[in-house]
Amino acid sequence: MKEKLVMFLVSAVCVISCVTVTGLAIKNSTGDHPAIIKAEDKTYTLTINSSLYTGAGTSGVGYTTAKTTSGTDIKIKYNKLSPFEAFDKGVQSGFNTMSNGSYIEILSNEDIHGLGGVRNIQFNSTIKSSGDLKVSYGWEEGIYVSYIEKDVAYTQDPQSYNFSLPDNPSYIKIEFNGSASDKMGLGSIAFTYSCEEIDNPYALVNDFYLRKVSDHYEVVSYVGSETNLVVPRKVVLGENNELPVTGIADGFKAAYGNENIVSVELPDTVTKIGTEAFMCDSSDDSKLTFINLDNVTYISDDAFLNCDSLGESKTLNVGKVSFVGEFAFSGTYLASRQLIFSASAVEIKSAAFWNSQIDTISFSPETNLTLHTQSFSRASSLTSLVLPVVINELPRFVLEKTTLLTDLRYAGTVEQFNAISKGSTWRKESAATVAHCSDGDVNL
């Protein structure tokens, strides 16, 4: 019997609310779909028949069952659950506990053809100490495309945690991770689903999950074990039918943690790096030493935040980059030490290079440059900055605390430089005292 994971509610009851849609397909034992049941606004309830408990300190997998309001059995799979330790207020009475490494999945029988697309999960819990809540999602049993993670902190009173899931998956897994003494007491869990089966919008190529966006794919996650990643350049859908891979999606996730990626080889089709794609927590040391950006035009917010080892060669090629998002290279140590922008128009958002370690940043004289507050603020190793003729302005704190910046060059004339609008604190605590222009110097 093939089992389907749906999602659950832990203590005694799980409530699932359903929006109005055309119907819910029912699957019989032959795998056919003989009936469509109209599913108007209705509340379904799963009731746990027994405590989710494997015994204190155990790590084995346990199973129990629940019933829907229609009487259908739902199989619940869980690991490392036990009775909760009471706090002073005793609010955990009757709760189940998720300790470090615990997880729960819901597996329906084959009479239910999934629950269709899950839109949102909400559950109430109390936390002893702190940890991370992780909701993994996908469209095939036991195979998860990516996940959403939230930090949770100590609380005696039940708190509500909400997860909005992208692309309406059908398979969900909830995990709790903390130290050995961290625990989460579970109350109720409710989830909203569309009541219609959602086709898997993802493709799996060489251990990369890719999401279809219009006429191209973006890389969402990597589920393999390699730390030197080679991103595929296309997805083959059939004979004479293939679509290019054009970007790394927002929130890209590697199964072993993004901080363990050593190198990334991008195909020439990839032009976008998504928000937080290779971001590393400040408490972790990033191992990323190389990524080729030869054809990348767009680098989103926080894309390389705290990548403190980035750059293998003398020059990291950003020649085609036209947009660098907020904090994109903040806290980044660029062993390449030199960035050269050559696109016809370039925008550097606020704090894009805040507190980064880089020696030289230069722009082609023909580039139309847009800068924002603190674009290069606190880039304490920046010694040389070469600016193009056309600049929107030199805004507040744009060169704040660039304490080694002694070579500030401007491709235009003295007259043109003086005409640029400048914020009163544009070079606060900067070493730059002279702007070298094409026909002379300007004392700052």
Taken as a percent bin, the fraction of beta residues is 35-45%
Beginning-to-end CA distance, first to last residue: 77 Å
Could you name the CATH class of the largest domain?
A: Alpha Beta
Number of strands: 35
CATH superfamily of the largest domain: Ribonuclease Inhibitor
Give the count of helical stretches: 1
Estimated helix fraction: under 10%
Shape: elongated
Number of domains: 2
Q: Please give the largest β-sheet.
A: 11 strands, mixed
Radius of gyration of CA atoms, rounded to a whole number? 27 Å
- What is the annotated CATH architecture of the largest domain? Alpha-Beta Horseshoe
CATH level-3 fold name of the largest domain: Leucine-rich repeat, LRR (right-handed beta-alpha superhelix)
Mean pLDDT: 79
Chain oligomer state: single chain
- List the uncertain runs: 1-49, 87-94, 110-114
Structural class determined from secondary elements: mainly beta
Write the layout of secondary structure elements.
Blueprint: E1 4-5, E2 13-18, E3 24-26, E4 35-37, E5 42-48, E6 61-67, E7 73-83, E8 96-108, E9 118-128, E10 131-138, E11 146-152, E12 155-164, E13 171-177, E14 183-193, E15 202-205, E16 208-213, E17 216-222, E18 228-230, E19 234-238, E20 241-254, E21 263-265, E22 272-273, E23 290-291, E24 298-299, E25 316-317, E26 323-324, E27 338-341, E28 345-348, E29 360-363, E30 368-371, E31 384-387, E32 390-391, E33 407-410, H1 414-419, E34 434-437, E35 440-443
Parallel strand pairs: 2-14, 17-20, 18-21, 20-22, 21-23, 22-24, 24-26, 25-27, 26-28, 27-29, 28-30, 29-31, 30-32, 31-33, 33-34
Antiparallel strand pairs: 1-8, 2-5, 3-4, 5-6, 6-7, 7-8, 8-13, 8-14, 9-12, 9-14, 10-11, 10-13, 15-16, 16-17, 19-20, 34-35
